[in-house]
Design goal:
By secondary structure, this protein is mainly beta. It has three helices and 23 strands. A five-stranded mixed sheet has the order 2-11-9-5-6. It has a four-stranded antiparallel sheet with strand order 16-15-19-23, with no helix packed on it. Strands 1-3-8 form a three-stranded antiparallel sheet, with no helix packed on it.
């Protein structure tokens, strides 16, 4: 084959560029060889220096561009001046190997090789983006900018290797755009002590204490809106923004509990994947309901008791222990009450999802 075609998709690892550096920012690329003409069984080794996978260089030299846009009018787009990045040079010595599609047993969509290209908050890009505005990053053409590649099982090029004589213009990309918002989301607002202990033979008691200086409101059920890490196509598998009931809900279920086999360490209950659909109905009111909010006040323990008979039902006669599964909560750094809500729901002005989750965890184990 005289050229190389690579199906490429990219996304932002998080939806914000956090100027504080608390959330590391990167573009995550997914690359896959899926051309019918690609019949070579050998892996392809790519020298990614100076390509779009070398994101700081790609922005500085026009392979990638940034455009400010108005979410209410997608047709309005203003190119951002990136001339301040012109001194950035290619990051030499970075390579990526892509397996052959020959004899591949899984679907091509499941065969992408991921590559993360980080952007340092100390780079000149930080001074280019303006607080509160939204941006798109996109390619200026179909060339990935890869100037050296070879069919090879090696993980890097040798010093005496020469640039490829193949047509690099044929390296293709399936283009996507991504939205960025220069922001400084707050860190987890407080350290929260969570205790788990038996209260009766078939009941557990959980106690959550806010050890911080101020009250925090958390959402206990319904769709959780907070920042989660993304891959090229969708949130990563362990993203925890699902709608399952959290353990501190007023009528708590056991979705946040795990039953562990003491001898093997295997999770026998509470590790089920209920599946996720990232498509949402635009007519559904996604604003959190007031009835699903709980306020954690400083030094005031929140205690919940719940029955675990259904969780233990059907287990064989062995030794087990129960622990709390790490779950994320949407949170607000204030007390939200009825006077703050509209139609019994948190208004959009308070419902921005561009914040990291509050994570409640406990190291207690009930045996």
């Amino acid at each position: 084959m005289s050229d190389l075609r690579i199906h490429t998709k990219f996304n932002s690892h998080y939806q914000v560029f956090d100027a504080s550096g608390k959330l590391p920012f990167s573009l995550v690329f997914g690359l896959c060889r899926r051309s019918p003409a690609d019949t070579d069984p050998r892996p392809v080794l790519l020298d990614i220096a100076g390509s779009i996978l070398d994101v700081p260089y790609a922005l500085a030299h026009g392979l990638l561009t940034i455009h400010e846009y108005n979410p209410k009018n997608a047709e309005q787009s203003i190119a951002v001046d990136l001339s301040c990045l012109k001194e950035i040079t290619a990051a030499e010595g970075k390579y990526l190997s892509l397996p052959s599609p020959v004899n591949r047993t899984k679907l091509w969509r499941d065969a992408f090789t991921e590559y993360h290209s980080p952007i340092d908050v100390n780079s000149p890009l930080t001074s280019v983006l303006e607080e509160g505005k939204r941006y798109r990053i996109k390619m200026t053409g179909t060339d990935l900018g890869i100037r050296r590649w070879a069919y090879s099982s090696r993980q890097e090029f040798a010093d005496d290797d020469h640039p490829s004589t193949h047509d690099s213009k044929a390296v293709r990309i399936v283009l996507t755009t991504i939205s960025l918002c220069k922001s400084s989301p707050s860190p987890n607002p407080t350290i929260t002590d969570t205790d788990l202990e038996p209260s009766r033979d078939t009941a557990l008691e959980i106690s959550v204490t806010n050890t911080g200086p101020a009250s925090v409101t958390v959402q206990t059920r319904g769709k959780q809106r907070f920042l989660v890490p993304w891959g090229p196509f969708q949130p990563e598998p362990d993203a925890d923004d699902d709608s399952r009931v959290r353990v501190i809900a007023s009528e708590s279920g056991t979705a946040s509990l795990q039953v562990i086999n003491s001898a093997t360490g295997d999770v026998v209950r509470g590790n089920e994947d209920r599946g996720k659909c990232w498509l949402t109905d635009s007519h559904i009111d996604s604003r959190p309901k007031l009835e699903n909010l709980v306020v954690l006040r400083p030094g005031d323990p929140l205690v919940r008791q719940f029955d675990i008979r259904a969780l233990l039902d059907g287990l064989t006669d062995r030794k087990y222990f129960i622990r709390l599964r790490l779950r994320g909560y949407r949170w607000w750094d204030s007390e939200i009450g009825e006077e703050d809500c509209e139609d019994g729901r948190v208004p959009e002005r308070l419902g921005n999802g561009l914040v990291p989750p509050l994570m409640l965890e406990s190291h207690d184990e009930v045996r």
